[in-house]
Amino acid sequence: MKVKKAVFPVAGLGTRFLPATKSSPKEMLPLIDKPLVQYVVEEAVASGIEQILFVTGRGKHNIEDHFDISVELEAHLYDKGKDRELSRVREIAEMVNIFYVRQRQAMGLGHAILCARDFVGNEPFAILLGDDIVDGDQPCLGQLLDVYNQQGRSVLALEKVPMENISSYGCVAADQVGERTFRITDMVEKPARDEAPSDMAIIGRYVLTPRIFDILQNQEPGKGGEIQLTDAILTLSKEEAVYGCLFEGLRHDCGDKLGFLKATVDMALKRKEFSEEFEAYLRQRLG
User: Fold this and answer.
1) What is the C-alpha separation between 228 and 65, in angstroms, rounded?
2) What are the backbone angles phi and psi of residue 9, rounded to the nearest 5°?
3) Among the listed residues 95, 116, 1, the one whose alpha carbon sits nearest the alpha carbon of residue 40
4) What distance in Å separates the CA atoms of residue 39 and residue 132, rounded to the nearest whole number?
5) Among 103, 106, 130, 138, which residue's Cα sits nearest to residue 117?
6) pLDDT per residue as tens, the chain (287 positions)
7) Sign of torsion over alpha carbons 254, 260, 263, 268
8) For residue 56, what are the β-bridge partners?
């Protein structure tokens, strides 16, 4: 069955970016001239996703406003003859069908995904986390969907990370079954360095079968007293195969201040309209 639906959990408070996130969601922080979440929505659309559900919380209305029609702004741009800007604004509201549901309690990523059950139904679906911006020739989610289409089972995005950072991630043990494809045998959420089964971390892209909802429904709280998606996927892997895809592309961890700064520099250097001048400025500052 083709994967047509994607879930975006965006209910988090973004406390690492306070005070910027006091009145604006972390997902709306601008990376050059687009909010973080728009990059991820564009990745989903480029991968063939047709419907997106945002799992929101209090104070997230800015996300809804961004992907909605803005009558006043469009009228202003039209009157001023700013056709290019008008086209870009209209494209945002027209790129994909978007729905919303609220996560009323902060009970973890697993609980946020469970909130999407009625939207997803009995279909495979994708999950994309807005913290991770992946820049590559092929969309990261598209690479996972290639594996799903071959195997017909759940797929997680994997990235090799330095062992000193492994405690910040869910980590997998896995058997390699293809050039960049692995069958997951074990998972640990944020392990200590000496307890990590490998240097392969799970990053914020998933394709899951609908069986995950029954598991999440009965999942006991795990680390941090929250319903952990990693725990549920581990249970799923005991019932049916779960695969990992060591994706190709550069991932920016935009949930971290330093990662956000690196993403800003890297993405700016790719923009033709100011990359040369910006690079010269950086060289001057560093030289």
Assistant:
1) 30
2) -80, 115
3) 95
4) 10
5) 103
6) 799 999 999 988 778 888 888 888 899 999 999 999 999 999 999 999 999 999 998 878 889 999 988 888 889 988 889 899 889 989 898 999 999 999 887 778 999 999 999 999 999 999 999 889 999 999 999 999 999 999 999 999 999 999 988 888 889 999 999 999 999 999 888 888 888 889 899 999 999 999 999 999 988 777 666 788 988 999 999 999 999 999 999 999 998 899 999 999 999 999 999 889 999 999 998 87
7) positive
8) 102
C-alpha dist (Å) from residue 92 to 19, 69, 88, 97, 231: 27, 8, 7, 11, 35
Residue 70's region, left for phi above 0, alpha for psi from -120 to 50, else beta, is beta
Judge if pTM exceeds 0.85: yes
Asked if residue 123 lies in contact with residue 7, where contact means CB atoms within 8 angstroms, the answer is no
DSSP 8-state assignment for residue 227: -
CB-CB contact of 60 with 8 (8 Å): no
Q: How many CB atoms lie within 10 A of CB 32?
A: 12
Q: Structure tokens of 214?
A: 């029954």
User: What does the radius of gyration of the chain's CA atoms come to, in whole angstroms?
Assistant: 19
Beta bridge partners of 159: 201
Asked whether the beta carbons of 98 and 54 are under 8 A apart, the reply is yes
Rounded (10°) CA dihedral 165, 21, 157, 224: 60
Q: Does residue 45 sit in helix, strand or coil?
A: helix
